[in-house]
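TEACHING EXERCISE
Course module: macromolecular assemblies
Task: Read the component lines below, then compare them to the predicted structure of the full complex.
Student: A.B.
Group: 4
Components provided:
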Amino acid sequence: MIKETSRGMAVQILTRVEVEGAYANLLMQKTIARLSDARERQFVTLLVNGVLKHRLTLDYALRLHLSKPMSALPHEVRAILRIGAFQVLFVDKVPPAVAVNESVELAKSFPKFTGLVNVVLRKVLTKGWDIPWPDLKRDTVRYLSVRYSHPEWMIQRWLKRWGKDETEALCQTNNEPAPTWIRTNTLKISRQDLADLLIRDGITVELGERVPESIRIQNFGSLEKLEAFKAGLFTVQDESSQIIAHVVAPEAGQHVLDACSAPGGKTTHLAQMMNNEGVILAFDVHAHKLELIDQLAQRLGITCIETQLGDARDLPGIRLDSQQRVLVDAPCSGLGVLRRRADLRWRKAEQDLWDLPILQFAILERAASCVEVGGDLIYSTCTIEPEENFELVKKFRSAHPEFEAVNLADALPFELKDTRDIQQAAKGMLQLLPQRHGTDGFFLAKFHRRS
Ligand SMILES: C[S@@+](CC[C@H](N)C(=O)[O-])C[C@H]1O[C@@H](n2cnc3c(N)ncnc32)[C@H](O)[C@@H]1O
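Instructor-supplied answer key:
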């Protein structure tokens, strides 16, 4: 049995993720709840997310000192080696010798492998980053894949689209820790007043430049414990996601449909913009996720949302031409948020980029049929792949001439600077890219139904 220390817990979580395919985030939340010390909880999170993200690089570095493949070792021993190598190579605040000794301690639960863990990690420590990488020029895909721990199929796509330098920059950004953004609940407080409250709680704040409600926060413990959180003064939402409600631009009293709404980040933002007046029909295909919307709305003091269980390809009970605004925040591959979701890169396959656009297109078409004449349709995803974004929108536009593109320069809450973005925006579309914009990868498009 592995000890219940913070490193031991990280080994348990990583083992279950690998063996059972468990979702790292959910499992981690449950497991670290057993720890009373916030710093220990943070350390487990750092180890688990770090190993998940950098797994390919770590295995490459470890394999140099192993006579057999990692797959020949018990799962727990693999996790111990990866955690040890991660601390040695990536974590400055842990002295490398401590990282190795603690890993050897853990490996004592697997006596046959204690010596191996000791020898291999000491070699990793001695070599450091002096690693013989694949040749960058001759084998660019493999180099970028093992150097930045991304699947080769992703690298191949991005290289074709953007070339080596930009692909490398994207991979680097994906490996950085994601910033935490919150959205002010403007039904209850102004952004400045909220920022002042948070500063009094010792939190570092920075007002966002793209969205008038956004605040970037640092140096916080458990957000749920803050009075401002309990009072519903804010919710956690990336700044790029906060752009969407501004582009939808609903007005108080309107009928709005949110076709894929859970867990309710954008739905509740729409409600704020409508001053909680009107009706938002919030659909989702998963009942348990609809409960999250209800809980969030309750905490934020929002009452104009009606959650409805249903497939957005059917939208049962919704009349044609009945909605003034329709949002399709589609289920997608999520390739724009790899820095935020540590294990996502290993959960996706290129096949998803064939299957998802079929679902996305069917949802978009049905949702479009609900837009009233003179109303607006907004499509968004958190991916950077053209099949789910530009190509899908192009197909939709040619099938639906009753919709015209809305120039996003007039709809966005911030000014575009890059000429490429300005040109795209004039055609009603915008692709935010982590490596260019420093945001999550996000796509949005807006169409107006002609009268
Ligand atoms: C990108 S997420 C939506 C995020 C949400 N708009 C927010 O801001 O919090 C996509 C959602 O679509 C839902 N979904 C997937 N397939 C669906 C379908 N066929 N019909 C309706 N919802 C679906 C998923 O359950 C997921 O909650």
